[in-house]
Each structure stands twice: as C-alpha cells, then as structure tokens.
Amino acid sequence: MTEMKTVSAAAGRRVVAPDGTPVPEKFQVNPADPYWARMLREGDLVSEETPVQATSSHEEPAHGDETSVTQAASGHEEPAHEHE
Q: What total number of domains does the chain contain?
C-alpha cells in the first residue's frame, strides 16, 4: 500500500497539481511521487500531520559532570562524544 500524507500549501504559496489545476486547502499526496516530493522538499507544501515533539532538556550538566546526552536526528538519545 502506498503511504499518503495530508498536506496544504505553505503560507503565501500558490500550488497547482501536475495538470495545472489549483489544489484544495488540504489534500493527500504520495510523498514518493517526484512532483509532490519536490514540493515538500522545497517548502511549497507543509505536512498537516502533527509531528511528534521530542522532549529536550535545556539544563546544563551539573558542575563536574562530564556525561551528557544529545538527541540524534533519528530521535534516539545517544551519549555525547567528548573531544579533548
């Protein structure tokens, strides 16, 4: 089954379907389709699906605590690498 994503035109953007017709306010696209993939990548379309917000602590490590954790792009926490 093809994954579909609900999207809308980004603010200030006029988006048309490949055949030149205007798109509705919210609609579904196949993000694997080259036409829609480019629109998503370039910011012409925005996803209407609510992204999962990663919780991030802005607290500094305690003095003398050299262990810290960073959030990887994958969303998994990984130990930070200390450079000496």
A: 1
